[in-house]
Amino acid sequence: MRKLIIDTDAGVDDSQAILMALTHPNTIVSAITMVTGNVHVTEVTKNVPRILDLCDADVPHYVGAELPLVAPYVDAAHVHGDDGFGGADIPQSTRQPEDEHAVNALIRLINENPNEYEILALGPLTNLALAVRLDPTLPDKIKRLVIMGGTIGAHGNATALAEYNFYADPEAVQIVLDTFGKSAPYPELISWETTLAHCMSWDWYEAWCNHGTDRSEFVHKISERFVARIRERGVTKYALPDPLAMAITLEPDLIEKSDDYYTAMELGGTYARGQLMVDYRDMIDGVTRDGHFPNMTVVTQINMDGFQQLLDDAVK
Ligand code: BDR
Ligand code: CA
User: Fold this and answer.
1) For ligand 1, which residues put their CB under 6 angstroms from it?
2) Which of ligand 1's atoms lies nearest the C-alpha of 38?
3) Is 275 helix (H, G, I), strand (E, B) or coil?
4) E-state strands within 85-129
5) pLDDT band at 103, cuts 50/70/90?
6) How many Å apart are CA 245 and CA 165, to the nearest integer?
7) In CATH, which of 3.10.20.600, 3.90.245.10, 3.40.50.1970, 3.30.470.20 is domain 2-315?
8) Radius of gyration from C-alpha coordinates of the chain
């Protein structure tokens, strides 16, 4: 069984991804750590228990960082709604988060169970950066880290050049690269461009929302307002960033192409703050021209049938 810790700013697509994990046969979701991102962590703390209710799943969940390390807070409420659930009418939960802070929980869980956990980061990397600053041994004690975030070809969404999760806390990303990326296995990245290359059709989306189950109704309700807006604007396909990262986490065999690169964050810049720099130049003996070693596995191609199957299974 895969033991998974999900770090999330849920969030519409985060919620869809969490459903995939909670319904996956070979996966135990051991903990969910929550962070400010799409919406403030107080909203995330209302949303995660509602997803757990829907799946009748008892998963300890922990409140994490309230604000980015350095950057001023930028939300994504225009995508996810002020509540992170697209303003949908979803019953509130009576479940309570654990008393322990998410950062302390990450450190404790990983130290109690070295080399057992896989971590999937679906929001800004603030919690992970704080955890590894407090305990630099963490990277050697996890099985795998998968991250949704970043641009690998300068096609941004939060800004022209930067993807939201990385733009929201760029200093945290750099800390994660410098620590978790220090030796193989490197963090595995689903970027915004890879997301755009693995979109679903609107016909598929409609079928997904109409399986006649509670979970199918849920994904419909939380996504319908944003979907209506982007369809009116002429967007031709449905992007699922966090579910795509979840798919390769749950089933790594779905990865059809990935390569290791040296990457770094742009922390200054007039236009480029929050952009991920990927050094694509040929390496000599595994070292870049500037003397850097790879620190990230950039995933660029995923089996679409398998991805779709996982999404469908999550709502059936
Ligand atoms: C990422 O940003 C958030 O808005 C989504 O939940 C996803 O994690 C996409 O850029
Ligand atoms: Ca997210």
Assistant:
1) 11, 13-14, 38, 76, 79, 122-123, 148, 157, 163-165, 192, 241-242
2) 4
3) coil
4) 117-121
5) very high
6) 13
7) 3.90.245.10
8) 18
For ligand 2, a single-atom ion, which residues have Cβ within 5 Å? 9, 11, 14, 122-123, 242
Q: Which atom from ligand 1 is nearest to the alpha carbon of 163? A: 10
Q: Which of 44, 55, 120, 51 is nearest to 82 (CA)?
A: 44
Give the count of alpha carbons within 13 A of 312, CB side only: 10
Which has the closest alpha carbon to 145: 249, 46, 241, 269?
249
Rounded Cα distance, 195 and 241, in Å: 5
Band of residue 216 on the pLDDT scale cut at 50, 70, 90? very high
For 130, counting Cβ atoms within 10 Å of its Cβ (0-12 exposed, 13-18 middle, 19+ buried), the class is buried
Pocket test for ligand 1, best of 41, 165, 167, 246 (most atoms within 8 A of CB): 165
What are the residue ranges spanned by the domains of the chain? 2-315
Length of the chain: 316
| Nearest protein CA to atom 10 of ligand 1, as residue | 164
Q: What average pLDDT does this structure show over 236-253?
A: 98
- For the full predicted model, state whether its pTM sits above 0.70: yes
Annotated active-site residue 9? The verdict is yes
Pocket test for ligand 1, best of 8, 35, 38 (most atoms within 8 A of CB): 38
Sheet holding 255-265, edge to edge: 61-63, 27-34, 2-8, 117-121, 144-148, 188-190, 296-302, 255-265, 276-279
Average pLDDT estimate for 120-132: 99
Instruction: Report residue 287: phi and psi, to 5°.
Output: -125, 140
For residue 108, give the H/E element and its range.
Answer: helix 102-112
